[in-house]
């Protein structure tokens, strides 16, 4: 008795003549690319532009110029927390919460060609519910783009970095 023949298969292990199991649908609108701010000068430029204070964080935002290095289709975001938040554990927790808020809301609400900086406040750590942080973030982005923000800080003459010696 001879063994039965196995059905013919292609390289991917599918039987020859079968259609792929993946359905093809038209691609949705591409999500904007998001990059993280890492250079101090970028944080300082954002700090001198529009800002909006909310209970969980301070949002600083600015629209980049056409001549700046990153392409105009990228949204950039930065996160920072001072020692007023607490020890390193509290600061890292606050930044993790702010990162997650931005990850969930920025692709829909942020505009390409803008830089955003989220500055954590003491309420961002454990006392502020995450859903309220999300709604605050959505409100802040909408208000910034509608032109409702605090006055920009005036430039500090002669101050390039941290003050030393006093």
Distance between the termini: 97 Å
Mean pLDDT: 80
**Could you say which overall geometry the principal axes of the C-alpha atoms support?**
globular
Along the chain, the helix and strand elements come as EHEEEHEH
| CATH architecture call of the domain at 33-145 | 2-Layer Sandwich
* Total count of helical runs of at least 4 residues: 3
Strand runs, count: 5
The secondary structure category is alpha/beta
Strand order of the largest sheet: 1-4-5-3-2
Main sheet specs: 5 strands, mixed
Q: CATH topology of the domain at 33-145, anyone?
A: Ribosomal Protein S5, domain 2
EC number: 3.1.26.5
Biased composition (Low complexity): 15-26
Family: Belongs to the RnpA family.
Keywords: Endonuclease, Hydrolase, Nuclease, RNA-binding, tRNA processing
Structure commentary:
By secondary structure, the chain is of the alpha/beta class. It has a domain at 33-145: 2-Layer Sandwich (Ribosomal Protein S5, domain 2), CATH 3.30.230.10. Helix content is 28%, strand content 17%. The chain has helices at 40-47, 88-109, 130-145, and strands at 33-36, 50-53, 57-63, 74-80, 114-120. A 5-stranded mixed beta sheet has the order 1-4-5-3-2, with helices on both faces. Helix 2 crosses helix 3 (130-145). It is globular and about 90 Å long. The mean pLDDT is 80.
